[in-house]
Amino acid sequence: MTRLVTLLVSLSLGYASLQAQTPAPAPTLTPPPAAPVAAVPIRALPALDLLLDKDIVALFATLPVQESGRIKPLDNVASYRLLRFNGIRSIAITDTGKSDGKPLLDPATSQPLVNAKGKAIKLSPMQWLLVCWFRPDIARAMPMFIVDNSSAIAELGLDTKAKRDRYAFNDLAAARATLMEKMSNYRELPVKKQSPEQRIIVQLASNFLDFEMTAGHFDFIRSPLGDTPKAMPAGIEASTPEKPLRLSASLKHFVAALKTGGPPMQQPWFRELGKSALGAMMSGNGELQLRIFPPTKDAKSDVWGGPGESIFKCFTDGSEPSAEDSAWLAMYEDLYLALPDAGKFKTAATALKTKITTAAAARGEGQWVALEEHSMKADYFFYGQWLFLVGLICVALTWPSPLSKFAWVAKACAWLFIGSATALVTTGIVIRCIIMQRPPITTLYETMLFIGTVGSLFGLIAEVLTRRGLGLLIAGLAGYACFFMAIGFEASEANDSLQLLQAVLITNFWLATHVPMINMGYAASMVAAIVSMVYFVQRLFGKLKPGNDDARFFTRMSYGFLGAGLFLSLVGTVLGGIWANYSWGRFWGWDPKENGALMIVLMTLAILHARMGGFIREAGLHCCNLVLGMIVIFSWFAVNQLGVGLHAYGFTDGTWPKIHAFWASQLLLIGYGLWCSRKDRNRGKAASQPAIASAVPAAIAE
Amino acid sequence: MPYLRKLFAFLSSFGLATSVLTGLLILTFLGTLEQVEYGLVESQTRYFESMFLDRIDVGACWRALAFDAYFDMGNLKLPLIIVPSGYLLLAILFVNLLCGGIIRIRKKPQTIGIFISHSAILLMIAAGAVAHQYSKEGILDLTEGQTGDEFKSFHDRVVEIEKVSADPKAKRSVLVIGDHLFRDLTTAGKDGKGRTFTHSSLPFDLMLTSYAPHAQARRDKDGSRTDAIDGYFLQPLAAQDANGGTMVDEQRLAGCIAIAKDKKDGSEQRGIICEESSAGWTVKSGSDTYLINLGRRTWALPFSLRLDHTEQEKHPGTERARRFTSKVTKLTDGHEEKRVVTMNEPVRSGGYAIFQQSFDDGVTSGTKVKRSGFQVVQNPSDHWPLISCIIVGIGLLIHFSMALARAMKWNQWIAVAVVLGLVAVWFGLALLKLL
């Protein structure tokens, strides 16, 4: 079947190329091309209100589907699709895709699409998917494809908007052939060799095709043979409002026609039917196709069926659909045919959902769908991020007058916000573990969540022990920075962040020991670096004097985190080697990620030995901590960008400049730190007394 | 004696420890960056497994860090003389640890954690040295139904010289030249660099020259090549994969020119030997025939392994593997033993560990035959890192919990007891889970 799907997709692209050879009218954005109208509409278009109805949205949002190998709520599919297309998880029905834009007109009624208050309608991912499915005419006019660089649009020969702006399907449709042709050319190049514009075009084309299939999801019942069917196989009657053409009943006739009519691609009707079936799949990528029918007869099969697959299976096998597939397909058709009547539609949707959830439950599947939907709605990490920021502001408010009552209140608020944020993000991580039934870290994204959470926990523990505000600052900084990064990273990846594991990683014991430990090592080392950053910033503003009580407190705290970092990194790294040795037969393979972890261990050891040897004092120690922070960032992010080794997760645009910027900021601080160190030494010599040496914490001077 | 005392003071000093650790850190950093253009094996050999570092490719490191987006420094290589590389630095670290961390360290309750950790690190370095010197690691590829009793190294290449015997049952005897003795002969085409190997049992001396890490023997179609041998010449190839990245060492096919010079009459026979060719090069000397091959080093297993059945399980609806399983039969002196190898669960027997390394369902490769690649490892220090890790962890926990207790003015021994108690509980739980 994969071959047939590939053939259809490539034919679809080829068709676009053929179109490109004919002189096309000059592309224009205004007025937009008219949306295709079905020649024989079998159902009146539903009112938008029905698709935005709370009950309907909730019904569909928690519908279990199988995608990328796991059972998840349909809302998850909608959410990541919209994120991939639009860059954010919401979209307004306006000419800009934002709430402040001009509301679009309903193509069916020419009335502005506004809510009861007369304002633009903002769609959630699930609402957006329902609009795509049941009102594709509106969806095609919504500017939902985010383009980071308008040069890519100019390359397609289209009029551009702002440098970073959104385009609607209808805007791009004029250049469809060019888009497909360029995608075919560019994706032949290795990703690292593609220019940013080329990467944008490849992504845009992929999104364009995915949207086309999403919007055509119900074409298999809406207009299975196209809007204006030209040729019909024998025994098949054209769809009419009274008697729609239902594939659940007529697939066998199509299969019979295929058997007698020669090769599929030479059948005039097959291309249109194939396109409808591709829409029913919702993606040309087998892993991302919509699988919504749990097998009810075959308990051994763990692959769910879907409308697209049910149709294609008949063509590839040359067999009639099974009774089970026909029943599912008929039910799915009933859903569409219930439109535009709100009551009937709700009943059909409820029946479908009940059947799916019952079938899934009978197989022991889908038990975490509601929890996942709750987690998506609760959006723990998003709210956690903002609470961390508010907490940080509260910490900052304590600085002007640390001993005042106001500072006490601000500190209490900081505790409340940062503590709540830590609790929220911890809950989010725990829920992810429950859903996936595995330990918390398996991807780069999850390291950000985990390190942010552990960093804030470390900060809070330090605050409990020391009560000087620095722990709160660390907790807020670590939490906010990590979750800010994580949310940005998730948006740039726009793939389900709950991924199934590769065979080599499926071992919960090691995932629960080595991986968290090494990441806690990252967190502790990073916290030590943050303490040193704060140390130098405070010295810069004259808040700290070398060797005084506050400065020694900073040194003691960073030393404490260095020690914790050494323990966690060293044991975590060695545990990783032991895992590799017992699972794959090699303890150490000099893989870049392994080397990164080793570098953290070596740097920490070098700092501690240099400190014990008296080669570095207060400022020197903090300078070294900053280098350690740079190494952590190298190990955490940069090694993945090298494109070699077992941990190369892929090349992400824009990661290197961010790493360089961080390194540059640290080098500036180190430069200042070295100047401080020299000044301290000269002052020490001038005073001819070992004042600074006494700053060596008791913990170190054994 | 004062000199010895000074030497001991130097060898046990914090200064030496700091310098060595910093040196190892820099080597690890550079060795990681150079992997982008030189591949893992070459960087590993240069930075971590040799005694001295011959050069640093600053340009390659610069590009690996993507600094070329701001300034392209071109191909800048920094030649070095007497700069210790990883192997030597680890040896120095071992001595430094022994002298400073074990012998010289002040023996008092506060340093017990450090003492324990240092001892464990010594064990870990020793484990690495033992593994480096004595471990064997290679691949045994089997198709379903096939039996094998030897495995091939991933990276070690050798030139094998074998006298061809008329009796197929005669015991085979092969002379082996390791690639550390000839892989530097890459510039021979330009300045004639070659190396001659001799052995009393051979009627000829064998000179190896023009070594290329990745090469192919090609036909000299128009006869214009001056270096052609029997109508063929050795064409070095760029070690790049289809995506333009550095080709991994396992995919490279090395080649070189071999010249057999008769010990009696000085007559020469020239041949191309390369991994690409499975037949080898035949050298005649009187009535004797010798077969000379360039290939991966092979080792014999003390038992045979037959692959009975292999299968791959995928995550539902995807092409992503969830599990690989190989059912094998271990054959020892007519005795058969059924075993199962899966990803993460190797079969261990007779000091050898057999891991599922790769899988071919025969569909992707088009062979229609299922195949399993088994990584075979024999490592005398197999379990040392685990022991070392546990000890070093306990040592560090003792030390840092005492340090924290001192800083917080707690009772340090109670703190140690609590931490170790928690570790014991954790181990207990882990053990329960495992059992």
What can you see in these coordinates?
With 702 residues, chain A is mostly helical. Helices cover 62% and strands 3% of the residues of chain A. Chain A has 26 helices and 6 strands. In chain A, α20 runs antiparallel to α21 (470-493) and α20 (444-466) packs across α22. The radius of gyration of chain A is 30 Å and the shape is elongated. Mean pLDDT of chain A is 87; it is low at 13-39 and 691-702. Chain B is α+β, with helices and mostly antiparallel strands and 435 residues long. Chain B has 8 helices and 18 strands. In chain B, strands 3, 4, 5, 12, 13, 14, 15, 16, 17 and 18 form a 10-stranded antiparallel β-sheet that branches.
Structural class of chain B: alpha+beta
Low-confidence stretches of chain A: 13-39, 691-702
- Strand tally of chain A is 6
Portion of residues in beta strands of chain A equals under 5%
Report the span from N to C terminus of chain B. Answer: 57 Å
Q: Give the termini distance of chain A in whole angstroms.
A: 71 Å
Main features:
heterodimer; A: about 700 residues; mainly alpha; two-stranded antiparallel sheet; 26 helices; 6 strands; B: about 425 residues; alpha+beta; 10-stranded antiparallel β-sheet; 18 strands; globular
Summarize the structure.
Chain A has helices at 2-21, 48-52, 54-61, 74-86, 125-134, 136-139, 150-155, 169-173, 176-186, 196-215, 219-222, 247-260, 270-281, 307-317, 323-337, 342-362, 369-378, 380-397, 405-436, 444-466, 470-493, 508-540, 549-584, 592-612, 618-641, 655-687, and strands at 64-67, 70-73, 91-92, 122-123, 143-147, 165-168.
